[in-house]
Amino acid sequence: MRLVVIGGVAAGLSAAARAKRLDASLEVLVLEKGDQISYSACGLPYLLEGQVRDWRQLVGFTADEFLGAKNVSVRTSTEVAAIAHSRRELTTHSGEKLHYDKLVVATGARARCPEQCMPLHTLADGVRLWEHLRQTPPARAVVLGAGYIGIELAGALRARGWGVTLVDRSEHLLQRDDTELTATLRRVMERHGVRVLLAHNGPPPEAELTVHATGLQPNVTLAEGAGIELGRTGAIRVTERMETNLAGVFAAGDCAETLHRVTGSPTWIPLGTTANKMGRVAGANAAGRRERFPGVTGTSILRACGLGVAFTGVSQAQARQAGFRPAAVRIQSRDRAAYFRGRPVTVELVADCETGRLLGGSVLGEYGVEGRINVLATALQARMTVEDLLGLDLAYAPPYAPVMDALLVAAQQLVKEL
Amino acid sequence: MRLVVIGGVAAGLSAAARAKRLDASLEVLVLEKGDQISYSACGLPYLLEGQVRDWRQLVGFTADEFLGAKNVSVRTSTEVAAIAHSRRELTTHSGEKLHYDKLVVATGARARCPEQCMPLHTLADGVRLWEHLRQTPPARAVVLGAGYIGIELAGALRARGWGVTLVDRSEHLLQRDDTELTATLRRVMERHGVRVLLAHNGPPPEAELTVHATGLQPNVTLAEGAGIELGRTGAIRVTERMETNLAGVFAAGDCAETLHRVTGSPTWIPLGTTANKMGRVAGANAAGRRERFPGVTGTSILRACGLGVAFTGVSQAQARQAGFRPAAVRIQSRDRAAYFRGRPVTVELVADCETGRLLGGSVLGEYGVEGRINVLATALQARMTVEDLLGLDLAYAPPYAPVMDALLVAAQQLVKEL
Prior knowledge:
The structure is a homodimer. Chain A has twelve helices and 21 strands. The first copy, chain A, is an alpha/beta fold. In chain A, the strands form six sheets. The first copy, chain A, has a five-stranded parallel beta sheet. A five-stranded antiparallel beta sheet of chain A has the order 17-18-21-20-19, sandwiched between helices. In chain A, strand 10 (163-167), helix 6 and strand 11 (194-197) form a beta-alpha-beta unit. In chain A, helix 1 runs parallel beside helix 8. The longest helix of chain A is centred in the C-terminal third of the chain and has 15 residues, at 272-286. The relative contact order of chain A is 0.11.
């Protein structure tokens, strides 16, 4: 039995390694179109900032190392041109034919930007930009797109001392319809010297360097050509076992959609950590197990200019769209006891008025952001109510939290609105 | 209607303020035997360390400020000598009689140590020790008792540059039957120059200063004298509405027991944050609401010599005692991406083999301890299984976490043992 995995980054390698571990008799082959596998694209902004010294640090395994560690063969620079599922056969760009019994499609996503633009999505993009910056340090750089990558990248380039302008067509940062969040994050970025141009529909300002961070789209051309169905999001539709509509063909990672556990609808949120989990499940099922991936609650976090911003679940506007009757509060508190130099932290909570169920939240601050958003993510997964949050036995000691944590303060406020 | 609250620290003031806010017509009177109210005893080690400059920073409100802010009268230096519940009457030590309609007993806990010892429990203890240290800096100090307070205090005194010996009769730190935890924490403390003497049953070493941190016991003499029933733990038995066996008499905070949500049994875990929550519920119910306090999952955290140590739920040994058939794993991971200077973090998880239910966990590391223990505390409250943990959508970005969080790595290990 041969399992072929198309794609050698997060989802693909997780699937391959897990399948091989669960069934050593399986022949597992990974095909990666790029020349590197197993890299952390999320680390690219920190490479450009200089916090990561060399791009090789972002690479977990080379193909040889992966073979040694996981007993899985990887062929790099091998792009699949077509899948003929009736014959269980792949054709590579070089014309080679390869048989498979089981298939995992982990073709990822690609940057949505014009031809010949400078994106920051793959390791190759990052290395190209990194080398460009070494050879031609720009006096002025423009970052187009104020999503996660754009904001992190703008902060990273600014930290190098260059003039940076962050440009977006929308009037909001992070594509959130949230005036207060946009104002806070903008203020912090501007204080760090990043120029922020929002609601900007004209041509971008002149600069020596222009980087596109204008979004991603799932890589589904290959899958579509093979008759693999896409979902409403435009990514590959999968069951909770990560199966596509074709028997024995799984999909995982940034090319696949998943269930949003708050709205109950399919969603497409390309993220390395989700890709890893989906890959593990796809690999297990390809090896004959019956595992399920329960979906996501939509957790994300970024750090730019010293500020952490994190979300989970849905915003009030998204909740309304999903048919809830939401109430929301936003409170200011501190990350730890005031007498212990506690720094401001802002918590927003969204809940459903009819059931009291927590629907989402955001946390913003210099410190203590990741832990608090993770508590909310856990509460969302457990379908907790705001009332349930009030009873959370959260850790308290002055170096870590105020005696009444910001999450509890927010829950105490919100419970009055329900 | 008059509500009298005995005790003016965490639980008492929370109860008083909440009751008054919910029913402005209520006359609320707080009686505090000490001369300060509303202080953070948890901040005392940091006062002694010098991280908090002045003890007044540990005081939230003076009695006057509390009256102004909450419209609640507080009488300090007023100790209650007896409660005659049949007459709804209190007698103070000075012989004064005071009528009540509703009563909240929030008499707290006291240090368990010999007469004339130097404990560190109340603000007065802390201020006395603080002044002693200013006037007579000790060349050598001995801290008796290696629980939370003892360990934090030993770290704090050592940070001042004095020779410190931490002594305990047990062979373990933190009263946990955990050889690995004891070894790690001991190593870190010794590296900071704290001498650690465990399994020490003889007289303590000679020193200029000896501080007792040998544990607490609930202050229940007054309650017992009034016919208020105690529970098995020795603290006041309360319902989930914080009612005692006497009609109209509530108890909250360190003098009261509460439900352990993992074992389902009453427990006594004196902590400021729990006291606040119990107090809020007691106050609301004293004001005629019907609220409940759901109990605790046993979360605690401390920081000493730069190391954070946190627990929630039960240990494997405690799980066995509570009738579970526990399995446990302990894994080493990093608090964030390795290429982002991730530092070691150790996670231990305990689960029930029969149901797969998570029963407890611990987290140990320099950073990222509080957030991870809070996720586990939330999971415990929601009665999640280890399988559920695998699906947690935790925040990922290189400055915050590795792509597969330490909690998930631990859950992946543990699920194999079940």
